[in-house]
Amino acid sequence: MDLFSNIPSWISVVPAAFSALFAGISWYQSNGSKKAKAKAEERARQAEELLEQMSDIASSLRGPVLELIKEPGKCNYTLRNNTESSIKILEALNHKSFYYDVYSDELAEIPKEVHPGKPIDLPLPHTASVRSLDLRIEINGEEKILYVEIPR
């Protein structure tokens, strides 16, 4: 009789043991899930950094944003926009390095905006010591300082 009287308690022990077993399995999986999530977040961060670095490399391979091309003549140049969007020229930082004519110490009027595919003729009389036209520009809403090399 003792054997049969313990059956209900054994019946409740078996599901309790299974419940404890499955609780342990669930805990193990959730712990593994946290580790996997941390790894995935780290890999996503690394991918974003790599994408940013690749973007920097690609932009450096495209060439200069603005380019001066020497035209026949003493100091005539063509200013060309090599990007796909318009560039606003806010200021010529080294304007005192250029002279317009004998009677003026001012740089020739630089256009306020350079559009892609529309080069602009620009007289830039200067001495041999001047190597670049230093511009403060705005491109795609971002302000930058750009040093445009003057070809010889």
Describe this protein's structure.
This protein is of the alpha+beta class and 152 residues long. The chain is 39% helix and 26% strand. It has two domains: 2-61; 66-149, no CATH class. The protein contains two helices and seven strands; from the N terminus they run H-H-E-E-E-E-E-E-E. It has a four-stranded antiparallel sheet with strand order 4-3-6-7, with no helix packed on it. Strand 6 (132-139) and strand 7 (142-149) form a beta hairpin. The radius of gyration is 35 Å and the shape is rod-shaped. The mean pLDDT is 81.
Count of domains: 2
Strand ordering within the main sheet? 4-3-6-7
* Strand and helix order: HHEEEEEEE
Distance between the termini: 112 Å
Oligomer: single chain
**Helix share of residues?**
25-40%
Apparent shape? rod-shaped
Number of helices: 2
Work out the number of β strands.
7
How does the major sheet shape up? 4 strands, antiparallel
Share of residues in strands = 25-35%
Question: What distinguishing features does this structure have?
Answer:
single chain; 152 residues; 2 helices; alpha+beta; four-stranded antiparallel sheet
In short:
Helix content is 39%, strand content 26%. The protein has helices at 2-5, 7-61, and strands spanning 66-70, 76-81, 87-92, 113-114, 120-123, 132-139, 142-149.
Helix and strand topology:
Layout: H1 2-5, H2 7-61, E1 66-70, E2 76-81, E3 87-92, E4 113-114, E5 120-123, E6 132-139, E7 142-149
Antiparallel strand pairs: 1-2, 2-5, 3-4, 3-6, 6-7
